[in-house]
Amino acid sequence: MTKIDPHFADELKKYGAKDFDACFNCGNCTAICTLTEKSTNFPRMMLRLGMLGLKKDILASREPWLCYACGDCSETCPRQAGPGQYMAAIRRYAISAYEPTGLTKLMFKSNPIFVFVTLLIAVFLGFFLFTLKPEYEVSRWIFAYLPYAVIHNMGLVIFGFTGLSMIWGALSMILNLNRNKDKKEKSDVSFFKALSLVISELTTLKRYQNCDTEEDSFWKEKPWYVKPWLVHWAIMWGFIGLLVATSLDFILKDPVTTIWWPSRILGSIAGLFMVYGTSLAINYRWKKVTKAYSETSAADWTFLWFLWIAGITGFWLEASVAFGADNIATQFIFLVHTVISMELVLLFAFSKFAHALYRTLALFFHFRNQG
After folding, report:
1. What is the spatial distance between Cα 284 and Cα 252, in angstroms, rounded to a whole number?
2. Which CATH class is domain 8-98?
3. Could you say which of 62, 112, 118, 179 has the lowest number of CB atoms within 10 Å?
């Protein structure tokens, strides 16, 4: 039995969907979207589900994650209903619904709560970090009042809790997508073929590149190196590269010996990509170059600035290694860099960052169900 919730529209507005109830279902947004296919009729269908309050249908849809938020639908909407902003809002709603603790819901709906939680985690991570650097003078001050074991073990518990929340969210999404699978759809695409298509898309962002092909698109005549798809690509692979490099450093060696170690070189290249991508993304949002960049939530700003600061402070630390600079300033930069990097990982399941996992899963289901 289908249950309609007439109050759901008001809830979605708390996630950033503003005037979507002005939509009169003309279908312009679907017609203008270059990613629309027979089996992925969005944003029109998603707007209809939101207005009817069909929450379960939204959570069981892969369409919100197939959208790359180019904003062409919002630019051309005759009713100024903001379908692009609406699609971003239902992604936030889905992230909060898949995550079991309710923390994401509070953070997405309230900027003050988001800022408070972010700062609280940063302070805690600062204390936790000193348990990994007991030789620091500040560490000795802290341990005089707060036992080392208490801080360290609590940190391990919180990181474990975050990992379980991420796994819960992924399983929740998979169950929802399976529930909504069209039984009439018969796919000839194997598991491994679908997986290879996902890897290909994540590597090239080919579908995202198609977003810039409309003749009247703002980005149509812009050079490739400033287009949104490359900005997204640079941020994504920059972060992945830094995560791999940091993991290798942690596993294989003391990370402060030489900048010519292979993992260090990988980290430097990945850092350049991430700083480049985040710098452009911040600039586009600051200048509001298109509707897609005109409305940015506190969570979006925080995510971008965290990534940018993590990249810049990483290069500072590289320079300190090259020139043998071990002073208070470098220790402070190390603290900032590590706290922000750890917080990005810790908030993975509770922030916009989660879309990296959910979009990957949605793409797999999308390719798997193509005949």
Report:
1. 39
2. mainly alpha
3. 112
* pLDDT the model gives residue 122: 82
Q: Which two tokens stand for residue 127?
A: 């204390």
- The CA distance from 152 to 70, in Å, is 43
* Nearest residue to 259 (alpha-carbon basis) of 318, 338, 316, 313: 318
Contact 19, 83 (CB under 8 A): no
Distance of CA 130 to the CA centre of its chain: 28
**What is the residue type of 208?**
Y
Q: Which one-letter DSSP state was computed for residue 7? A: T
Which two structure tokens, joined as six digits, stand for 97? 């619904």
Phi, psi for 133 (deg, rounded to 5): -125, 65
* Contact (CB, 8 A) for 311 and 341: no
**What is d(CA 356, CA 246) in angstroms, rounded to the nearest whole number?**
19
10-24, 143-157, 204-218 — most confident range: 10-24
Among the listed residues 225, 231, 315, 319, the one whose alpha carbon sits nearest the alpha carbon of residue 269: 315
Tokens 């027979």 belong to 38
Domain with CATH 1.10.1060.10 in the chain: 8-98
Helical packing angle, 355-368 and 148-179, nearest 10°: 30
> Which one, of 99, 93, 90, lies nearest residue 69 by Cα?
90
| Burial tier of 125 (Cβ tally within 10 Å: 0-12, 13-18, 19+) | buried
| Extended beta strands in the chain, E state | none
pLDDT tens, position by position, 209-220: 888 766 667 888
The reported pTM is: 0.86
Contact (CB, 8 A) for 20 and 60 = no
CB 40 within 8 A of CB 366: yes
